[in-house]
Design goal:
Layout (H helix, E strand, L loop, with lengths): L2 E6 L4 H12 L6 E8 L2 E8 L2 H7 L8 E7 L14 E2 L5 E6 L5 H10 L9 H11 L5 H9 L6 E7 L6 E6 L4 E4 L4 E4 L11 E4 L4 E6 L2 E6 L5 E2 L4 E2 L15 H17 L3 E2 L4 E2 L8 H6 L2 E6 L2 H17 L3 E5 H4 L10 E7 L5 H12 L3 E6 L5 H5 L3 E3 L12 H19 L5 H22 L3 H11 L3 E6 L3 H16 L2 E6 L17 E5 L5 H13 L4 E5 L10 E4 L8 H19 L18
Parallel strand pairs: 18-19, 18-20, 20-21, 21-22, 23-24, 23-25, 25-26, 26-27
Antiparallel strand pairs: 1-4, 1-10, 2-3, 2-4, 5-6, 6-7, 7-8, 8-12, 9-10, 9-11, 11-15, 12-13, 13-14, 16-17
The structure holds fructose -6-phosphate.
């Protein structure tokens, strides 16, 4: 979803804005724009396409030390220059960038038009800029606050005013927004990736909060009643290098390759070998509290939801607590029954997914206990939950999530272990899982350092317009995530099925034109899975099997093997080749791997 940046200080704003937008491009990339307040007034430049297209459209010299910028993912109105942000009022005095959706925009636009305002875009945001300009308030802060009272919906807003060039006024309700505190300069951004090059000191705005940002600092106040809000900056622990591509061809490949080291970091200090359990102090749940739960319900969206399914299976196996996962986007709309003895778990890489954040609020509103598995420290969901497990995957730039998914799966294994060990999981089984977790980084390294067979298989799959991913019980979430990754970046129709369900319908589709990727762990269901492979090969379907060493699968055209771990943890390793399959398929198709069409990294609108 859209990305916002703002700068005020002693440097040339345009350079910082463009650099910030480039970092935020993963949030949306159909158009981009900036507005800068300079010695000769305001200058706005917008362009359809990527940030580099905006850069090409910029004049050679663009003076000005205050400015705002935006990279857009279209919601209201098609990608076009007119619809790109910043938006302005008729007198071109107020400039606004916005992330979120104004639900009553249609009414506001009609009202403005009835009043003679000529709207120049199809967006909800343009209405906001006209409303701010028309309040007649003496200060920009009052004008923004008065306008906010007229809006329903979600927003992160940054506003500049040619009559008050010494400030940026920002507001947040439901969409992420942070301030970066520098030395005689301040930054505004949707997330820290846009500011880490300049400062490690950040302030997170909460819903209902506004701020006046000047070169010398910031002052926060509530949108409701203008009450002063005291907040201080926290230090973020991300080095700018983590956001660089280095010598990798794509962020996706870089992030796949980072998994062994990022997992080492995640596990460090969290495995307790003496008691064969996981140390998860951040959960804020003691043993008694952990024993109280009779069910676990996991909420997330997209790949995070599939990792929730994998987590539910781990929790049922290791802790023997009934567990399931549900898309947060469904949960929030169905007036869910929230039970006091259920542990709710929100899972999210960004910590900003609007559907998941809303589901968290719904659980809290109904008195439920909700913890989080979140990657981005200080993000909305991380701050809303009562405790959690930070995933420590480091920044993930590629839109298609890989390492954060693996960290989610491992996070659930830690949670399952901790829940199991305060119940009936024996010390022997606990030790087995601890050892298995410790082995994961080296085993993943082994998989990713031998990509040749995967590349070959990926080319074969890329030729098919449609394919199946199948798995059974433990292997099914892996198959779902494999299909998700494949379709996201190769634009091939990839569908996941339980291997057990093939004969109940989908087998009708099997033919030489429709290959299958089969997740075949060497476990107690191996014979059953082999049976499904027979059924496919008997109908002429090509098979790419992902399995463990020693498993002979003559039905498969290509067999990819991953090292064997413990049966409960094998699905994590079996997932790694599916990441590589998706990557190499998209590569062979010549597609834009890190920026797939129609998708954005952080889905902060509903
Ligand atoms: C898939 C993908 C999406 C996200 C989903 C949730 O590669 O990235 O399906 O998993 O949008 O995002 P987070 O985890 O940030 O809540």
């Amino acid at each position: 979803m859209c990305g916002i940046v703002g700068y005020i200080g002693g440097q040339t704003a345009v350079d910082i804005l463009v650099d910030g937008l480039t970092q935020l491009e993963y949030r949306g990339y159909d158009s981009a724009g900036i507005a800068v307040l300079g010695p000769s007034g305001a200058k706005r430049v917008r362009s359809v396409g990527r940030v580099r297209d905006l850069e090409a459209a910029l004049p050679k010299r663009l003076a000005g030390k205050t400015g705002i910028g935006h990279t857009r993912w279209a919601t209201h109105g098609a990608p076009s220059e007119e619809n790109a942000h910043p938006h302005t009022d008729s007198a071109e005095r107020i400039f606004v960038v916005h992330n979120g959706i104004i639900d009553n925009a249609r009414d506001l636009r009609l009202e403005l038009e009835a009043d003679g305002v000529e709207l120049t875009s199809d967006t909800d945001t343009e209405a906001v800029s006209h409303l701010i300009a028309r309040t007649g308030a003496e200060t920009l802060e009052d004008a923004v606050r008065q306008t906010l009272h007229r809006l329903s919906g979600t927003y992160a807003l940054a506003v500049i005013d040619t009559e008050h060039p010494d400030r940026i006024v920002v507001a947040r309700n439901g969409s992420p927004l942070i301030l970066g505190v520098g030395d005689k300069e301040m930054f505004v951004a949707s997330d820290i990736s846009a500011v880490v090059r300049h400062t490690s000191q950040v302030v997170h705005l909460d819903d209902g909060e506004c701020a006046t940002v000047t070169a010398s600092g910031f002052r926060m106040f509530s949108a409701d009643d203008n009450r002063a809000v005291a907040k201080s900056a926290t230090t973020v622990d991300i080095s700018p290098d983590e956001l660089e591509l280095g010598n990798h061809s794509h962020f996706m490949l870089k992030e796949i390759a980072e998994q062994p080291s990022s997992l080492e970091r995640m596990l460090s200090g969290r495995l307790d070998e003496r008691f064969a359990t996981a140390r998860l102090d951040g959960l804020n749940l003691d043993a008694q509290a952990m024993r109280r739960f009779k069910r676990v319900k996991i909420l997330g969206c997209g790949s995070a939801y599939y990792m929730g399914q994998l987590g539910a299976s781990l929790i049922e196996e290791l802790a023997r607590i009934p567990a399931d996962a549900e898309p947060a986007s469904e949960f929030r709309y169905r007036n869910p029954i929230v039970e006091p003895d259920t542990l709710y778990v929100a899972v999210s890489q960004s910590g900003e997914t609007a559907d998941t954040a809303f589901a968290v609020q719904e659980v809290k509103r109904k008195g439920g206990t909700i913890v989080g598995l979140v990657n981005v420290v200080g993000s909305t969901i991380a701050r809303e939950v009562s405790g959690g497990i930070y995933l420590h995957a480091g920044p993930e730039v590629s839109v298609a999530s890989t390492k954060a998914n693996t960290h989610m799966a491992v996070g659930f294994a830690l949670l399952a272990l901790a829940l199991g060990r305060v119940r009936d999981l024996s010390i022997t089984d606990g030790t087995r899982i601890v050892k298995g977790l410790k082995a994961l980084p080296a085993q993943i390294e082994q998989i990713i350092s031998a990509p040749d067979e995967v590349e070959k298989a990926a080319k074969l799959l890329a030729e098919a317009p449609s394919l199946f991913f199948i798995g059974r019980v433990r292997g099914y979430p892996t198959a779902r995530e494999g299909a998700q990754k494949f379709k996201e970046i190769s634009y091939r129709h990839a569908e996941a099925y339980q291997a057990s369900e093939l004969k109940h319908g989908p087998l009708a589709l099997i033919s030489p034109e429709l290959p299958t990727v089969a997740i075949v762990p060497d476990d107690e269901l191996l014979d059953r899975n082999v049976g499904a492979l027979h059924e496919i090969s008997a109908r002429g379907g090509d098979i790419v099997a992902i399995t463990n060493p020693g498993v002979e699968l003559p039905e498969a055209k290509v067999t990819l093997t991953v090292p064997k771990n413990e049966p409960e943890l094998d699905p994590i390793l079996l997932m790694i080749p599916t990441q590589l399959l998706a990557y190499y398929a998209a590569l062979s198709l010549g597609l834009n791997i890190d920026r797939p069409r129609n998708l954005a990294k952080s889905v902060t609108v509903e």
